[in-house]
Amino acid sequence: MHSPYILYSDGNGNIFEDTSLYVTGRTGWDAIAIPEDEWIELPEGGQLYELPGRRGIGIDVETGDMRLCEKGWAVAAFIPPAHTGFYLAAYEAAPNAPTLPLFCYTAAGWEDDKFYVPAIRIEQDIRQNSSGYNEDTVTVGVQKLLEAYPHNRLVEHLANNCALTYKCPAARNFFIGRWECPIPSSPACNANCLGCISFQPEEETIVSTQDRLTFKPTAHEIVEYTVPHLETAPYPIVSFGQGCEGEPLLMWQTIREAIVEIRKHTSKGSININTNGSMPKAVKALCEVGLDSIRVSLNSVRKHVYDPYYCPNNYKFEDIIESLKVMNSFGGWTSINYFVFPGMTDSVEEYEALRKVIRETGLKMIQWRNFNIDPDWYLSKINITDTGEALGIKQLMELIHEEFPEVKFGYFNPPMERIKGDFKLDFAHH
Ligand code: SF4
């Protein structure tokens, strides 16, 4: 079997295959042939993007030489949640090519009337499967809960901004009354991530995919809608730290007050926080009142790669490692939200650093997330000209699984039923 054929667009949103070229994949700054066993059909919910000002890199079917596809713009795939990409789209960008928006750009090809991507379904949980959402059900749920909580600013924000405007899967699941429910709480952040999805500086050409929360919710506003969700939803989780806010740990006193109040009313479900992990003392205070799970987001477990991306204010890389250790010392669930960038995440240096972090922190889970960022822009901004020797994302996963079989792989925060029970829950009958 050969690699699928390369795709190109006519610049008007029409996509074609070029059967004179096999598609290649990108790792770091390099284009390579993708191993045959790493392709899957583009999963349902996946989308294809044309990349203006960029020419795809392919392998000539006749000569085997690498050359550009001059027929049109390069094409990449946005693969749906629960799937992790093994290679980026490989292309050559013209000097004046516009910076790409904050999405992931996985390699994509065409074969036998199907689109293919080098990726894996890393998570069996179906909570964000596109086929699982019915617009009418969401709208009815929004009406019902807006009427139930007429004075709750958070429910109003989750309804009109998150569910109906941003189409946030977590907010939509809340209004359908199932699974993970979001609790945005912080209008501010103590980091300045280059690829922040809730705030982008004026001078940047890219825009954030949602606006940051503009108010500080009260503990009462949080408790009012989360207790009924924990009491009634299947596999219930309530999660602080969402894409439409800054850093939740900056609101730890309010969060602590809310957790105390929630646990007075219900012992059900998991209380989780998605965070940059910057304040281990705040994490300790939340663990003391019953925080069940923490997910720390990071682009790398190497300080010299982390710092130029996160641009931390008043905290240091070591603090995020300490937050994982604190949560582990309370017996809580610890995950990293690992922004996967082929060539960087699977570099030998990163692999060695990841092994060290797993050993030191007792990490329970790696959520292998596709990094939503323009690859050239990212590597230039963090001054990486040589990404070093790479293992391949697939092989990296196999090596980590072999050495640390107890470390779970996935894409979403697990419910208590997976944390305490059988991690391989039969999601088909969710
Ligand atoms: S930690 Fe989150 S909210 Fe803060 S800058 Fe980074 S992405 Fe944005």
Describe this structure in words.
By secondary structure, the chain is of the alpha/beta class. It has two domains: 5-121, no CATH class; 136-429, Aldolase class I (TIM Barrel, Alpha-Beta Barrel), CATH 3.20.20.70. The chain contains twelve helices and 21 strands. It has helices at 135-148, 153-166, 169-176, 219-232, 252-265, 280-287, 303-310, 317-329, 348-361, 375-381, 393-403, 416-420; strands at 5-9, 15-23, 25-27, 30-32, 39-41, 47-51, 54-60, 66-68, 73-78, 83-85, 88-89, 91-93, 109-111, 114-121, 180-183, 237-240, 270-275, 293-298, 333-340, 365-370, 408-410. Strands 1, 2, 5, 6, 7, 8, 9, 10, 12, 13 and 14 form an eleven-stranded antiparallel beta sheet that branches. Strands 15-16-17-18-19-20-21 form a seven-stranded parallel beta sheet. A hairpin with a 5-residue loop joins strand 7 and strand 8 (66-68). Helix 1 crosses helix 3 (169-176), helix 2 crosses helix 3 and helix 4 (219-232) packs across helix 5. The longest helix has 14 residues, at 135-148. The model has no long low-confidence stretch (mean pLDDT 96). Iron/sulfur cluster is lined by residues 189, 191-193, 196, 198-199, 246-247, 276.
